[in-house]
Amino acid sequence: MDDESTSPVAVSGEPNSLTGEWARVRAFVARPRLPDPVEPRPSRPVVALLRVFLLDLALMATLATIAAIVIASGIELPESSLANLAVTPGLIAAILIVAPVGEEIAFRGWLSGRKRDVLACVVFLGGMGATAWLGASDMTGAAIWSIAALIFTLGLTAILFWTARHRPSMRWFAGLFPLFYWLSTLAFACVHLFNFEEGALFVLLPLVLPQFVLGALLGYMRVTYGLGTSIALHALHNGTAMALVALATVTAS
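The structure assignment produced for this chain is given below.
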C-alpha cells in the first residue's frame, strides 16, 4: 500500500507537490474532463497558479530551444508583426490586462459548461462589440454611450460569472467537454496566426505551437481552479514574454 505522505496527490485529490500538480495537468490533457460536482474544489489556487506557471516556463523554454536550433540550421522564420511595436503604457496595459481578460472570457469563460457562464461570454462579446461600434460612431454623445456600454458590459459579465460559480455544468456539455476543450485551445492558437503578416500556413502553424500549449494549460486552470487563475496565468505568461523581449532589446543595443 502506498504511503499517503509520499504521494504527490493528497487524499482530498489536491496535489501536494510541484510534480503532483504537473502530473495532474498531464492526466487532464490526456483525458480532459470537467470536475465531478461532488468533488471538493481545490483550496490553494495561488499555489497551483505558481506551479503551473513554472510548467509553462519549462515548456516555453523547450520550444524556444527548438526554435533556436531551427534558426541556427539556416531556416529563416517569419517575424511576428508584434516584434517592432513601440513599448508604451497602452501596449503594456493591453498585454497584461486587456488581452488576458478578454481572451480568457472569450476562449475559456464558457468552458465550465454552466449556463450563466455561457451567457456571460455572450454578454461580454456582444457588449464589447457595441462598445467598439459606439466608439467609432460619429453620432452625438457616442463617446459617453461607449463608456456606458463598457461599464454595463463589464459589470453584468462579472455578476453572471460570480453567480454561476456554484452552479452545476450542463450534462450534455460535460459529455462533449473534451471536444470543446480542444476546439477552444486550437482556436486560441489559430487566432495568433494574425500576428504574422506573411508566410505559408504550413510554416506558420508550428509558430503558434506555444499558444496551443499555453491554451491547454489555461483550459486546465479555468475548469480546475476558476477563471481568475487562468486570467492570472495568462497575464504572467504575457508579462514574462514582454520582459524577455525588452531584455533582449536592451542587450542588443
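Interim note for the steering committee: Residues 1-12 have pLDDT under 50 and may be disordered. The two ends are 60 Å apart (CA to CA).
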